[in-house]
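Support request, please re-run this one:
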Amino acid sequence: MKKKYQNLFFLFGAAVLAVMLTQLDYREVFAGLRSTGYWFFAVLALWALLYAFNTATWYIIIRSGSSGKDNINFFWLYKITVSGFALNYATPCGLMGGEPYRIMALKPKIGTERATSSVILYAMTHIFSHFIFWLLSILIYLFTQPLNVFTGTLLAAAGAFCTLGVWFFLKGYRKGMAVRLMRFARHVPGLKRWARGFIEKHKEQLDSIDSQIAALHGQNPKTFLSAVLLELACRFCSAFEIMFVLFVLPGVSATFAQCVLILAFTSLFANLLFFLPLQLGGREGGFVMSAAGLSLTASAGIFVALIVRLRELIWTAIGLLLIKFERKADNGK
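Re-run finished. Output below.
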């Protein structure tokens, strides 16, 4: 990737991160860190492992369309993955920052079309696994928690929404997603004119990208299943973060199933507010409501939200620094 683009990604992410840091109450931050102790380092280490899951998913997607001559190093891809997520965290509308960065970083190694298709396909798999995770979490709730009319209505609505999401992505896997996304962009205010021109100019490339996306689902079912299962395992393993944080709260006892439910409800609520950088407010509100819904105290939800927010900020900073590290490594070649 050209140095000027790397610098632009870094500066944009750093500016947004600086704004995020000004929103913290540092008294609460230091109090939370003192209370969490070494468990906070366990949380940071857990996410180093979870990003390896994400990288492995993207790696097998790239390799599935490979002729065996690609020179893609897993650890290099890990750096790009972490930086991509850092830009996603810091960008309003989520995928508007990290995905272009990943495409531009991968393009010199495998070409524009394959880089674009692999990034779109990974993003699809990442989101698709969320819908599966939410559906499985509804089943966990039904088997482990008491049910009333209000809760049942909410679960039914969430189940319908997730089922629709699964159907939408399965259709996208079979027929591709690039052209569909660009056609959708033609109806978005501010993007209409750009999207029309882009489709007219790059119709052949978009069709090629869609054919590569459909090929993984149709011709490589094992690769598709492996990618989805890796991302789904990542979702469930990330519930350990909540369990680690709750360990340090006196009088609070939560099972792993409850931690999965807290994560599922919170992530669903926060993703509905995708337009907020770092999902500010949505994540915290989701933790408080999900904790209260499982008979945990609101203070427990607030504490978990604080620690998770700190973890996100630290890993966002690490990801942004890796962009600069990548630039220096390229300069040294």
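Residues 275-281 have pLDDT under 50 and may be disordered. The CA atoms of residues 140 and 257 lie 7 Å apart.
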